[in-house]
Give the backbone structure.
Amino acid sequence: MNDTRFDLVIFDCDGVLVDSELITNRIFVRMLNELGLALSLEDVFEQFVGRSMQQCLETVTGLLGGPVPDDFVDEFQRRSAAALKSELRAIADIESVLRALHVPFCVASSGTHEKMHTTLGVTGLLPQFAGKMYSVTDVARSKPHPDVFLHAASRQGVAPSACAVIEDTPTGVRAGVAAGMTVFGYCALTPRPSLITAGAHHTFARMRELPALLSIS
C-alpha cells in the first residue's frame, strides 16, 4: 500500500545513502593543500560539495590561476577508493528506511556509475539499487540543473511532480526544485538554513525521520 503522496523517492548518494562526504573531502582538501591552496574542510564543503568533478576542476583552475595537474583526478580517485573501501559506512538507519518505504526508490548522483558501484557495494546497499542508478554522466548538465533527476523520473516512468528528492547539499536541493519535485533536505552535516535557502520544502536531521515525513507531506 502506498502510504505517501509520492510515486517515487529519489535519493542522492554521497551523504544521503553512504557516509562518504567527510572521507572524500578530507582527501580533496589534502590534495588542494598540496597544490598550494590554503583551503579548509569547511571551505570545501561550501564551494565544492554536491558538484560534479568537472565543476570542481573549473573552480580549482580559477583558484590556481592555471591548469590542474593532469593526474589530479586519477590520484584523487585512487586515494578516495582506498579510503572508502576501508572506512565507508552506510548512513545510520538507511537500511531500515529503505525497508519502510512502500513506493519505488532510486538513486541520482553527481558521482559516476563507477563511484556509486564502489560506495553502494562497500556498504551492502548495491542490491537494493540494481537497475535504478542514475549518474550525472548520463545527462548533459550537472546539478544544480535538474537533468539527472528528470532522467531518473523518466526512466522510472513517474511524473516529476510525483517525485520526492532526498538531498544533503544546496546544489542538489536546487536541482530537485528546478525539476519540479518535492525536496527533503537532510541536514546531518549541512546547516539547515543553507538547505532552506536553496529551496528545500522540508528538512530533517536524522534519517529515521524520513518515512514519517514522506507520509505526512
